[in-house]
Structure formats: structure tokens, C-alpha cells
């Protein structure tokens, strides 16, 4: 089943946050999700130890550059979605995981627009495409954008990336307390208390739209593969 890897050698780009949002969103819809936690910070593994983790989420925590390929392959056999949260460096582990991915999501902080990490990731993907002689679907998601940011500013950024031939998610992941609270309190967005976490409804809508776009890209990738 599809493998979705989150990659950007830049730390703090929002890889772990967007990976957990996708995992919890898919799991709360009933999908069996395996997260390969290849981030040395192990945030998702720690989240998994808090109460409220859906039964449908399995977390694999012990991952190295030698084992990542086999672990992804094994997870594909049992899970409906395999999500790989990668470390914030360009390493053999990252290349290996990208080589196994059906979709690579490249989070880039919208506020700082530090696209350098993103460019590095795209170069890695292009190398893996050459080595494996197949296309690897990839797209940029802008993260930590301000809820107040003008849609015009985001449009400009999107246009710049698109001019470079880079696919970009229409949904940006907004800076939200809810996305931080998940890591502190565990569970999913729907188990957080709306009285204690501000704008929870908006955060939930944001996560839904993001995962909807992921599904659409996976479907397109499958269709393209079938047509090839
Ligand atoms: N959309 C967001 N809203 C609020 N905080 C965020 C958001 N995205 C990331 N953060 C915070 O920014 C920091 C880095 O994010 P993280 O997802 O761990 O990035 P990475 O995995 O790329 O290093 C964390 O403290 C995280 O809680
Ligand atoms: Mg991380």
C-alpha cells in the first residue's frame, strides 16, 4: 500500500507535524496506518506513548539506514498507508526512504520561505528517479503559515514554485496551537478539548483538506503508473 515520505533536510520545516496530522487524519477515518519514525527526535514515538493513540496507528521506532527499506517493505504488506517521518539531514536513510516512496511530501516553512532545503530534497528525488528509472511523485506543502496571511502572498509563492515545475499543495498547514497540543496531550485533533485548544475546528478542517490532497495525488500516481 502507498508509502508517503516527509522529507526536507532542514529541521523545523514541519515534517513531523504534517506526518502526524496525516497519520491521525487517515486513522480516524478507519484506515490502518503505519508510521516509520525515522526522525532521531522520535516525536511521533513519544506521541504514541501518550493516551489516545488510535488502535489503527502502528509506530515503528527503531529505524536505521540499513533497516529502513525492509521496514517500509514489511509495513506495506499490512498497512493501508505507510508514512515515513524522516530526519532533518540529507542522508543515505533519507535517499533510501525516498527510493521506496509513492509520494514525497516536502514541507517548507511558509513564513521564512527557506526553499533551500526543499531544493535539496528535489535534487535527491531526481537522483532516485534516475537510479530506479521511475517517476517519484512529489509536492511541496507550505507549513506554519499565518492564519492571517493574505491569499495573494501564498499565491505568489505558489506561482514561483510552479514556475520552477514544482507541484505545490493548495492547502498550506497553518500555525495552530492544536498541532502543537497533539504532541503534548496525545490522541487526535478530535480528542483534544475545544475549550482548551483554540480554533480546533479550523485545525481539523486544515488537516482534512491536507489529507484530501494527499489522497488525490496518490490516486493520480496510481493512475499514471497503470497507464505507463
Ligand atoms: N503548523 C504548525 N503549527 C504550530 N506549530 C508547528 C507547526 N508546524 C511545526 N510546528 C512546531 O515547529 C517545530 C518544528 O516542527 P516539526 O514538525 O518538528 O519539524 P521537522 O520535523 O521538520 O523538524 C515544533 O516545535 C512544532 O511543534
Ligand atoms: Mg522531525
Automatic annotation (TrEMBL):
Pfam family membership, one: VirC1
InterPro entries reported for this sequence: DNA_Partitioning_ATPase, P-loop_NTPase, VirC1
Protein name: Chromosome partitioning protein
Annotated organism of origin: Aureimonas pseudogalii
Amino acid at each position: 500500500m502507498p508509502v508517503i515520505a516527509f522529507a526536507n533536510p532542514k529541521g523545523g520545516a514541519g515534517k513531523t507535524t504534517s506526518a502526524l496530522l496525516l497519520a491521525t487524519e487517515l486513522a480516524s477515518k478507519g484506515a490502518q496506518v503505519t508510521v516509520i519514525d525515522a526522525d532521531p527526535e522520535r516525536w511521533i514515538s513519544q506521541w504514541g506513548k501518550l493516551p489516545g493513540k488510535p488502535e489503527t496507528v502502528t509506530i515503528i521506532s527503531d529505524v536505521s539506514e540499513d533497516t529502513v527499506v525492509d521496514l517500509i517493505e514489511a509495513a506495506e504488506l499490512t498497512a493501508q498507508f505507510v508514512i515515513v517521518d524522516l530526519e532533518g539531514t540529507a542522508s543515505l536513510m533519507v535517499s533510501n526512504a525516498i527510493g521506496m516512496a509513492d509520494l514525497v511530501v516536502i514541507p517548507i516553512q511558509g513564513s521564512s520561505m527557506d526553499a533551500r532545503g526543499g531544493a535539496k530534497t528535489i535534487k535527491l528525488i531526481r537522483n532516485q528517479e534516475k537510479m530506479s528509472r521511475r517517476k517519484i511523485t512529489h509536492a511541496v506543502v507550505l507549513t506554519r503559515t499565518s492564519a492571517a496571511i493574505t491569499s495573494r502572498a501564498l499565491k505568489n509563492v505558489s506561482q514561483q514554485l510552479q514556475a520552477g515545475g514544482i507541484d505545490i499543495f493548495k492547502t498550506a498547514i497553518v500555525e495552530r496551537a492544536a498541532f502543537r497540543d497533539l504532541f503534548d496531550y496525545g490522541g487526535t485533533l478530535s480528542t483534544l478539548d475545544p475549550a482548551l485548544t483554540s480554533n480546533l475546528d479550523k485545525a481539523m478542517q486544515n488537516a482534512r483538506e491536507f489529507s484530501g490532497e494527499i489522497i488525490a495525488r496518490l490516486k493520480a500516481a496510481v493512475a499514471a503508473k497503470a497507464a505507463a
